[in-house]
Amino acid sequence: MRKALIVDDEMLSVRMVSRIIDWEKYGVRICAAAEDGMDALEQFEIHRPDLILTDIRMPRMDGLEFIQKVKEKKPETEFILISGYADFSYVKRAMEMGCSHYILKPVDEAELETAVRFLIDKMDKKERQEEILEENQRIKVRRQLSRFMRTGGSQAEALRLMEQIPEEFSVYRLAGIMIEENSINDYVELDSRLTVGMEVLENRLEEDLNRKRRCMLLDYEEGCWTAMISAYADEEEPSEVWAKEICSYFRAEYEMAVRVCFTLPYDNTSHLPAAFMKLSNLERFSFYVGETPVLGYGYNCEENEFDQLDILDRTKVIAQALSGRDFAAAKKILAEVLGLSVHLNPTNLHLVYEFCYNVICGIREQFTREERLEMRDLPLMKMSYRDVSELSTVYELGQFMEKAMECLAGEASECRSAYGCLVQEGIGYLEQHFDSNISLDSMCAVLSVSKNYFCYLFKRETGENIWSCLTQIRLKQSKKLLLTTDYKSYEIAYMVGYDNPSYFSRLFKKCTGYTPNEYRAVRTREAHGGEKR
Questions:
Q1: CATH number for the domain formed by residue range(s) 423-531
Q2: Out of 3.40.50.720, 3.90.25.10, 3.30.70.270, 3.40.50.620, which CATH number does the structure's domain 152-296 have?
Q3: N or C: which end of the chain has fewer CB within 10 A?
Q4: Across-strand partners of 271?
């Protein structure tokens, strides 16, 4: 609510002006009154009013001198002059100082109300313009920070960006908020929200996050927001408390599961690219170590390694064990490496993948030495380092490596086709349950495989994620229903598993170029045209 100050040496006039109109109607509160310019200046310093109604001729300091002093301190303050003197020389000087309204005593209610409404509208418009400019500047700075964070830049650019960010972010942490899509409904809900109102969602999210700690969302990519959070509040509230609150917030407000990672504090924007690289490693490591919703340096992860892995030595030892077909010893070494890996500095996680890839290469060489030509088409024989590195959790990596050793030992009867069969079983499950809210938990329980491992295999063999495949199955079924039944499009939406017919219609048009009803009409005309010919 805006504040108004009334200045007049006649108290009767003060009472009359304060009551003649409904000030609250215009969002204004009379904060104080003063008898002369000196007293008014004191009240101004205390209350910093937005609007001042003042007489011109007063003892000690007249209205014009008072206006001049206020304008020097707060130029945006608006004035309404009220006087019993029709002295236009005063009016002229007041107008030159920025006053836009002059009312003669006795004050007319309608005239005062018109003046107040005009000035309130003027202030509102100015505020909106300032908010737009401020928001545009905020977006511009955020984009510049995001680009610098991801691509790097010069020291001069870092210093320039440092000058543009608020003081609260001069010491900051980077945080990653990663959405987990555990069911098709999660996927649909997220896609719907981001398609229809990403800007609205981000504005609300940033506003809510700032109630907990000063936060600036920098960008969103592939289900993950990257945010800069102020580190000044660390002493009052550790970052892990904030991160856990974010997890609870997403569950309560959006019914979404998220993981949160955060870096150590940094005190200069020049460190932003390095901080982002460390955050990216943390985000991957959070999936590697398993069900850990919050992972952060200084909380449950340290930048300095506290378990050194002698990868080269262990690689040699496991190669000797495999060459001698001592699979028990090989599995023991593998278990040691993977057990220690969950305590590594996340930036050195690649060492574990290099170890596993070297073991795969050793197994392939062993196949060659043993002239086991029947194994040449085995998926294992074609695996690259990148394929191995896409096994995102320690559990999946361990499962895969043990299976590879079993293939060498001749213990895995399905080692040639297990992956293809598993994905095919998954597609069959999607085709059978497409009209329900399929979850990764339920599907992978039926398939007897871990969630992340199955997602990796599915993406590798089909080129798309599970939910995209399910979407195509649902669209195929909906097309069939549109052409072979008289069901309305909203009924078909429910029949193929969508609880929101509007989302179904938008998705259908995005994928086919037609709304469901347009698709039915066009295909029906084409069919009838074909019959006539």
A1: 1.10.10.60
A2: 3.30.70.270
A3: C
A4: none
Residues in the chain: 533
Q: How far apart are CA 385 and CA 499, in angstroms?
A: 42
From first to last of its 533 residues, what are the pLDDT tens digits of the chain? 899 999 998 888 889 999 999 999 999 999 999 988 899 999 999 999 999 998 888 888 888 889 889 999 999 999 998 877 666 777 778 788 878 788 888 888 999 999 999 999 999 999 888 888 877 878 888 888 888 888 887 778 877 888 888 888 889 999 999 888 777 777 776 776 666 667 777 888 888 888 888 889 888 887 789 999 998 877 778 889 999 999 999 888 887 788 899 999 998 888 899 999 889 888 888 877 766 789 888 888 776 543 455 777 788 888 888 888 888 888 888 888 888 787 777 777 888 888 888 888 888 888 777 766 666 666 677 778 887 887 777 877 888 888 888 877 775 444 443 346 778 888 889 999 999 988 888 888 888 877 777 776 787 777 778 888 899 999 999 999 999 999 999 999 999 999 888 888 988 988 888 899 998 988 888 777 654 43
The topology under which CATH files domain 2-125 is Rossmann fold (3.40.50)
**Please, which residues have CB within 8 angstroms of residue 440's CB and are 6 or more apart in sequence?**
182, 183, 451, 454, 455, 466
Domain boundaries, the chain: 2-125, 152-296, 311-416, 423-531
Instruction: Give the residue among 109, 121, 96, 99 at the shortest CA–CA distance from 26.
Output: 121
